[in-house]
Each structure stands twice: as structure tokens, then as C-alpha cells.
Amino acid sequence: MKVALVHELLTMKGGAEKVLRILAQMFPEAPIYTLLYDEKKLGDWFPKERITTSNIQRSAERFSHSPFSILHSPFDHHLYLKRFPAAVESWDFSGFDLVLSSSSAFAHGIITNGRPQHLCYVHSPARYLWDRTHEVMERAGKGLLGPLKRAFLSHAFHKLRVWDAEAADRPDLLLAASRTVQRRIELYWRCESTVVHPPIDDFWLQAPPSPMVGGAGGGGAGAYFFLASTLVPYKRIELAIGAARILNVPLKIAGEGPDRGRLESLAGPTVEFLGYRREEELRGLYAGAQATLFPGDEDFGLVPLESLACGTPVIAFAGGGAEETLDARTAAFFTQPTETSLAASMERFPTMVFSPDLCRARAREFSRPRFEAAIRTAVQGLMGHD
């Protein structure tokens, strides 16, 4: 069976890219189609020889050599939004038996017409086109060029929203990353889907790691709070920074992203930005933390499960995917998306008792073998054979 993989953007490492990495290992011969590919950031996960890009890649590479590249990263996908639908529709998959797409915005819109079969794993319908449009427009409207940006995005989003909903009928089978995503698929696309939760990698389920020096782990007295995330606005990392400032407690933040400068400007002396950290380092950071903070309203969220696998409980916003993976045995919740609400949960947290063994047991319920079995079952059902 000839298989192709599709993923919109390979420009940063996040949860969706971790899922694609597993799919790429499940189907090692499958080429990977993507609109934009940053080899410096993703080459170790997805080697260049497996990658097929679009004409947008050539535009990005030309842009990287222009004087304007000091204003924007050549891989800033907002520069090319209006071109994405035509680009994914231009790929020819007629030589394949199955296309497995990993979609957060556009990959579901590839054209196969049933030959080959198209199985689409949906991380979420594009949130900036639907439930986050107003906050994206508000951010875009700031600054000298704000009115021009708003006008551009308003026009682009309207056209993309129409295309997005129409293209949702193209896959032969939709898999949703969570019940939260499943509800959005029903609401925005009027389509049915089957929930298959993403896995955490086997790496996290190895023997318990040694805590990083400076933390007691599992809610120990004096331990720091920890946050691991791509640094982008919708992750609401400023809530964690504000809460740490209110309580004057240590907070370590691992991750990189375009929002780092703004977040650093908000941080007090107890907040430490660690930048990108490899998985082995992250295990020690999770294990050494009093708790991992998860302030965003996420579609699913692998970070809480990675933390549980290291025996460390979570303080999470009570919404989205966190409510599917966490409960009172493994997490404390805050109910309002404010720094004071999060600070109240952090202040109360040392009085609570959590079992590292229960945390690890919960993480094992989201193992990679379970995910791979669900994917293979879906493929077999779609292809009509055992």
C-alpha cells in the first residue's frame, strides 16, 4: 500500500508535529507533503529527503534573501494565508492508495476524489478562522499598520472560512484529536468524526526520571512551578507569569516562539526563560517541579500528560482537552482565564496531596501503542480489508 502524509506547516515543534512524527515512523516509506518546511527547526524529526513542499516554499526562500526578512520570518505563515488553499489543492496524489493528513487548518482540503482514500486526523478546525477570530483581529489591529492588517485579515478570513467549511467534506474519514475538537467539527463543518486521542511518546513512560536540581518533585516544599510550551499568544502564558509575580514564586518556562519578547517584558525576577530544551532535560524539569502549569484552553494538550508521566501533577484551566485527560486525582483546576484565578490555585496547591504513581498510571492510558492500534484500525476500515 502506497501511503502519503500531509501536514500544513513544518516550521516549529509542537503537539501536532509530535503526532506527525509518530505517523511518519508508522509509515516510514511515506513522503511528507507540507506547505512550508524549516529544515533548521524540523530537519532532525523530518529529514529533507522525505519532504515535498509547495511553490510557497520557494517564495519563502526568496523572501529570506530580501531586505524585508528583518521584519518577518520567511516562514511566517500569515504572509501566505490566501495562497494556502490553492497550494494544497495543487498536489497530485493519484499514485497513492492512501493519504493520511494531519490537519490544523488546510491539510483536510487536499483533493483525492476517493482515489486514493483520504483519512484526516484533525487537531482542530482552524481556530483563528472560527472561535479565536476576534482575539486575532484585536491583536492584529494594534500598532501603526494595525488598521491595514485588520482590513487584510478580515477579507482573507471570510474567504478562507467559506473554503474551510466546503473542503471539510473531502476526506473519506475524519478522526478528531479530542471530544472538544469533535464538537467543533460538528459545529463548524457539520461533519461526523471519531475521537482518537493523541499519544505521548514511549520516551515519557520510561523509568521515573531524576528531578532537576532545585526542585523536590511531586508537590515537594519549595519546588518551582514549571511551564513547557511554544511561546505564542493563544497559550496564555502571561497568566502564569502574572500569577508567579503575584505570589513571588519561582517559575521556569521552557520553549521558544514569536511571543518570547513580549512575555519576557512581563516577567518579574522569579521567572526564568529556559528556551528550547531536549526531551531528556524536560523530563528532569517536569520531575523537579511542584506542579506543571497549563493555562491555555487547548484542543487536547500533550504537556499535562508528559508531566503526569514524570509523576508531577498539573494546575490547568478548566476547559478544553485538559478536562478529558485530568481529574481531581492528578490536577488542580482554575476556572477563570485570569492571573488571579490561577494564582489562587497555585497558592492552594501545597496543601493538596497527589500520588506520583496515580499520575504515571493516568499517563499510561495515552500510550503510543494504543494510538497506533486506533490508527491502523481506522485505516483497515477505510481500505476495506483486514
If you had to describe this structure to a student in words, what would you say it looks like?
The protein is an alpha/beta fold and 386 residues long. The protein has two domains: 3-199 and 368-383, 3-Layer(aba) Sandwich (Rossmann fold); 202-364, Rossmann fold, CATH 3.40.50.2000. 38% of the residues lie in helices and 15% in strands. It has helices at 15-26, 39-42, 55-63, 84-90, 133-140, 146-167, 179-189, 237-247, 260-266, 279-288, 303-309, 322-325, 339-348, 356-364, 368-383; strands spanning 3-7, 9-10, 32-33, 36-37, 51-52, 98-103, 117-122, 173-176, 194-195, 225-228, 251-254, 271-275, 291-294, 314-317, 331-334. It has a seven-stranded parallel beta sheet with strand order 5-3-1-6-7-8-9. It is globular, with a radius of gyration of 21 Å. Mean pLDDT is 88; it is low at 213-222.
- Unreliable runs, pLDDT <50, ≥5 residues? 213-222
Instruction: Provide the structure class.
Output: alpha/beta
Order of helices and strands: EEHEEHEHHEEHHEHEEHEHEHEHEHEHHH
Task: Write down the CATH topology of the largest domain.
Answer: Rossmann fold
Shape: globular
Strand percentage lies at: 5-15%
The percent of residues in helical segments reads: 25-40%
Rg: 21 Å
Care to count the β-strands?
15
Through-space gap between termini: 13 Å
- Lateral strand order in the biggest sheet: 5-3-1-6-7-8-9
Q: Largest sheet, described in full?
A: 7 strands, parallel
Please state the average pLDDT score.
88
- CATH level 1 class label of the largest domain: Alpha Beta
- Architecture per CATH nomenclature, i.e. the level-2 architecture of the largest domain: 3-Layer(aba) Sandwich
Count of discrete alpha- or pi-helical segments spanning 4 or more residues? 15
- Our count of domains comes out at 2
